[in-house]
Automatic annotation (TrEMBL):
It comes from Pseudonocardia petroleophila. The keyword Oxidoreductase applies. Gene3D superfamilies: NAD(P)-binding Rossmann-like Domain. This is D-2-hydroxyacid dehydrogenase. GO terms for molecular function: NAD binding; oxidoreductase activity, acting on the CH-OH group of donors, NAD or NADP as acceptor. Keywords: NAD, Oxidoreductase. Residues 34-310 form the D-isomer specific 2-hydroxyacid dehydrogenase catalytic domain.
Amino acid sequence: MHVPVSADQGHDPVITILHSADRPKHLDGPNVRFVTDETLTAALPGTEILLVWDFMSTAVRDAFPAADSLRWVHTASAGVDRLTFPALLDSDVVLTNSRGVFDTPIAEYVTGLVIAMAKDLAGTLDAQAKGEWRHRESERVGGRTAVVVGSGPIGRATAAMLAAVGMRVELVGRRAGEGVHPIDELPGLLPRAEWLVLAAPLTDTTRGMLNATTLGLLPPRARVINVGRGALVVQDDLVAALRDGTVAGAALDVFEKEPLPADSPLWGLPGVIVSPHMSGDILGWRDELETLFVDNLTRYRAGEPLANVVDKTLGFVTGSAR
């Protein structure tokens, strides 16, 4: 795959790609600039399109004043919270994301976590490593209640997959819709949530939504799975709830600070699974991200509406993904 840098409408837009050690393998051309956090500011003048390939970076905020020609920013992630700073939000720059790439992989990951925790896979592996024949009973998945917070494509795919294994699923979104509870009904759903899955975007409304108060509404057998953003959870409150038995366990793929510090108590708490922000990263996912960007670049050059345009007043894409 090669970026077609000759524009159909008579100009060749300069494309700057912000990356870390990992960079796109198939995007190149004379008008493509590859930069890191340290060189972004110097590269922004004259840049028309910015691809944020390093979606963990926060460098765009500081470098943004140097952007004198920028018209479109695309991020290789579904979440856009690292790009929703005032200067970009108040500008005419269009923001798009990679919605649609991660839906099914994350749904599979969540479903796998539910089954692994219900069937005590961790205990089986521990016993095997010790050479112990440790018979025990496991939990049923079918018929259990899962509350999934986030009614975008990831949340909907997760809800559908959990329902397919027999779970009763309550889907919660920003506002009510067909099969969706509005977010203000969440406190009433939590007391019967045996599994609470967080797949919401990080906004002013959702930041810290799982805290001491909301954790206290969960039944003691509940488990929490977070595949959204780390800041959806007040991490110290979750640690306290796990220690005192307010909740039975957690599977966390995202954290307030990443990588998770080595001294975090989450590493050693019983009933906790820690994974390194990988729930959507399947084999070939980078190729899919490149393809999505090139498809949108073709739209841009043809003067067509871009896909996955983020509503900057809400912080996420509304409407269909592609």
